[in-house]
Amino acid sequence: MNSKIASVIARKGIEPISELTAYDYPTARLVDEAGVDMILVGDSLGMMMLGFPDTTHVTQAHMLHHVEAVARAVKNAVVIADMPIHTYDTPEQALETARALMAVGADAVKLEGGTAVEAQIRAITQAGIPVQGHIGLLPQKVKEDGGYRMRGKTDEEAAAIMRDMEAVVRAGAFSVVIECTKHSVAQAITRACPIITIGIGAGRGTCDGEVAVFHDLVGGYPWFTPSFARPRADISAEITRAVKTYIDEVRDSGAK
Ligand code: KIV
Prior knowledge:
Blueprint (H helix, E strand, L loop, with lengths): L2 H7 L7 E5 L3 H10 L3 E4 L3 H4 L11 H14 L4 E5 L8 H13 L4 E3 L7 H9 L4 E6 L18 H16 L4 E5 L3 H10 L3 E5 L8 E4 L1 H5 L16 H18 L4
Parallel strand pairs: 1-2, 1-8, 2-3, 3-4, 4-5, 5-6, 6-7, 7-8
Helix pairs in contact: 2-4, 5-6
This protein binds 3-methyl-2-oxobutanoic acid.
3-methyl-2-oxobutanoic acid binds next to β6.
């Protein structure tokens, strides 16, 4: 186990863990230098970087390109690479995908699902590659699973998410993201879970840590912000202001 991951794991139940997405060199460098614990090169880059409507358009080639750039920038944080849809349909394919992401500089990989991908997670962890699981709302399955709605609202759904957590743990993951899940369910899962839980849209203080999409945090994608996001800046407004100032200055300089 990589020493950066070991020191994050040791903080379960002691100190909350911060995770943020980053997809490019300057952002990853700023986020790392600010002291975040883990940087996720999420497949949310499909929307935030590439203009796709959802994450299902992201390919392994996209991921390799962005993970390599982020890994070049990061000195301290754990770099986690998302595995795109249909790159882990079998345990063999999952291992091949994970190895390629590790080869370009990731410290760990993340994939979505619980019981359905237990064999895939096990194949990766048994090869010595650290895995972060992802349960609750699964963005890669959002079309067939009824859209972006809060998960765990019924007893059956809450029990299924708990079983997913147990499968991820059995398969040897070091951490699990719990996305868009009823807050009391995320809290119950965290209490029952021996590995680090990281919440997003799962309530404040319900998990061992939180992950946010960088653009949601800084107001970098003004065309859509999830309801649970808590923006801390408005960089889109700053960019627009700077660009307009530049345009005005060029125009004011006059034709020569
Ligand atoms: O791709 C991503 O940004 C993610 C987070 C929502 C956890 O998977």
